[in-house]
Amino acid sequence: MRVRKNMQPSPIKNKAIEYRKKGYSYNMISEKLDLPKSTLSDWLKDIPFRPNQEVINRIGNAKLKSAQTKNRQKIENIKKMKKIAFKEVDKLSNRDLFMLGIGLYWGEGTKRYSHIRIINSDPAIIQASVRWFKDICKLKNKNFSIRVHIYPDNYEKECLRYWSNIAGISLNNFGKTQIDRRKNKSFKKRGTLPYGTAHLEIRSRGKKEFGVELHRRIMGWIEAVSKQI
Question: What confidence tens digit (pLDDT) does each residue in 61-83 have?
Fold first, then answer.
């Protein structure tokens, strides 16, 4: 019986082993030697892999490029979806504004005590609310009052000017600013609300239709919607 002698590795296999010991990945060895990774896996499976700096740099660059590609795709998709959304919404009708305001008050407005008030830190919500009260509820600037709640790290004058511009309401219609000095609350909110929170309130000025009756109508609108959902 003939005993088969161990065959010596081919020059290309020796080269593959050399590259692996120098810390090259299967992908890089495959590129250098034009060999399939399945062959390399069979040849090199017993050799510990300690990636060299070139491999580390390539992995880092690959991750960076991958992150950049994903970010670009995300931005492109956001633009695409926004374009579709704008077409779906189209021009806002009075009916649309009417229903939007009901939803806003349902979510953000005061429901009890017949006070008409919307509290929020989002300027878009305050703007939309003012538009709704003016166009749908037929209120005038004199019917609006705003109180701003801020924290010790906010600049009061800057906050007042900001909300005045957002709402289109004169500073003469602003009430006394409330500064929340509670330590735990102030620390949690620090830096998160640069202009504080706007409390948009309605003043009837002696007219029930802009006071308790309007509040009851708004509550009726909300109930009418809720019963159809």
Answer: 777 678 778 878 998 999 999 99
Whether 219 is in a domain gets the answer yes
Q: What is d(CA 228, CA 153) in angstroms, rounded to the nearest whole number?
A: 45
pTM (predicted TM-score): 0.70
pLDDT digits (tens, 9 = 90+) for 123-163: 999 999 999 999 999 999 999 999 999 988 899 999 999 99
Q: Name the amino acid, one letter, at 106.
A: W
E strand map for 93-204 = 117-120, 144-150, 178-179, 197-202
Residue 161 token pair: 């000017």
Count how many domains the chain has. Answer: 1
| Domain contains 116 | yes
Burial of 183 (0-12, 13-18, 19+ CB in 10 A): exposed
Is 191 inside any structural domain? yes
